[in-house]
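User: structure tokens for this one?
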Amino acid sequence: MKATSNKVVSFHYTLKDKETGEVLDSSQVHGQPLTVLFGANNIIPGLEARMEGMEVGETRTIEVPAAEAYGEKDPNLIQQAPREYFQGVELEKGLPLQAQTPEGQIINMIVVDFDENTVTVDLNHPLAGKDLIFEVEVTDVRDASLEEIKHGHAHGEGGHHH
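Assistant:
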């Protein structure tokens, strides 16, 4: 059985920054393979497209350009905010922060710079602008249930639990 739309695919991965070779994430750290419903936008598009047709036991080194991963860095998402918005926070460059909008949406950001009046934050995804390399091994492929297709994600071990 091959990794195609409406199949539940489990795979181990190691994610690296193409430029530096730094390991950014690995399913081995989480102790189990990642399990996704293929064709439901559960993983970045460039990875899913390059995994299409893989079978159990198959391994690949897959390069995904930034545009097909987390997108290019958007300079409009680097913004300044008044320092008073960050009261009680010990600021340092590179510090990840979360804020909540009045509507309840969580916004992730990284502190880029700060002075006594303003804090510059980057609202881009931390991997935006990075070309990525995935080392992938498919461990299981099965037909998705009608419920999984309806819900848009895999259920059970490694998948979503209701």
